[in-house]
Prior knowledge:
Number of domains: 2
Order of helices and strands: HEHEHEHEHEHEEHEHEHHEEHHHH
CATH superfamily of the largest domain: Aldolase class I
CATH class of the largest domain: Alpha Beta
Strand content: 5-15%
Radius of gyration: 18 Å
Shape: globular
Strand order of the largest sheet: 1-9-8-6-5-4-3-2
Structural class: alpha/beta
Mean pLDDT: 95
CATH topology of the largest domain: TIM Barrel
Amino acid sequence: MKIKTRITELFNIKYPIIQAGMVWASGWKLASAVSNAGGLGLIGAGSMKPDLLREHIQKCKEATPFPFGVNVPQLREDAAELIKVIVEENINIVFTSAGSPSKFIDFLKNNNAKVVHVVSSLKFALKAQDAGCDAVVGEGVEAGGHNGYDEITTMCLIPNLCANLNIPVIAAGGISNGRQILAALSLGAEAVQMGTRFAATIESSAHTNYKNTLLNAKENSTVLALKKIALVRMIKNEFADTALSEEFEKCKSKNELLELLGKKRERSGIFEGDINEGMMEAGQSAVLINDIPYVKDLMASLIDEIKIAKDTLNNLFI
Length: 318
C-alpha cells in the first residue's frame, strides 16, 4: 500500500510517516532505518556539535539511498553553524523549531532546501506560511519535549491548522500507532511526525534504561514542567518532582530553574540512562508502547494497523 499526500510528494517518500528529530535518540542509524522503510528519517541536531552532525549526515548517506532530513532547534547558540553544515552536505530537507521560521529560511531556500517549521498554534503556523515554509508540523501538547504555552491538544490543533493554511500540515503529539495515523489523516493532516514511538526502537540511540521506561509507562507517567523556562513534557521521576516543587511550591525564579536544569540533564536521562535525576522527555503516547522493535518491523505494523483501521471504519458506513 502506498499513501499519496502533498507531503509524500514533497519529500518523495512512500508513507506519510516522519520520525521526529529528537535529542540524544535520533542519530544516523534511526534516521536511515526510517527512510529505508518508506518514511522520512530526521537526524536530530539538537544534541550535536557541527562536526558530529556532519559525521552523522555522511553516515546516513551511506546507509540509505532514500531522502532524509535534519531537525535544528533554533534556540541553540550554534544553530547557524549547524545550518551551514546542512547546506555544505547538500541536505535539502530541513525541519526547524524553537524560534522564528524566517531566521534561516532565505539561506536554506537559496540552497534548494525544503523547509518545515514546528508550531504549536495557528498564530505561529501563519507566520511559518508567510515566511515561505513548505509545510508545518502542528505539535499538540501531548508531545514529549518542549511544548507550546497554550497547551493546545493535537485533536483541536490539527483541524484548525488545516482549515486556515494553504501549505500542508503534519500532525504530531501523542501519535504512536496506525489507528492514530489514520485519525490524523482524517483530521486533514497529510502526514504524521512521531517521536516517542521511534525513540523506543532498536536503532534509537537512547539508553536502554530510557527505552524500558517508555515500555513500562502508564497513562499518567508524564508531566508538564518548567513552564517558566520552556514548557517540557517528561517522564515523572525524582528530577521531575523536584522541578515541579521548585517551580510551583517554592516559586523559584527562571534563573534558579535554569540552574536546576543545568546543561546536561537531557543527556543524562535519555542518552546515559539516569532514570532518577535525568530529564527523560517523552510524550503521552508512551502508554501505547508495548515493544522495542526494529524500525522496519514497526513501520510494517503501522501500515497494517492503518489498513485494519480503515477497513473497520468502512464497515461502519452502511
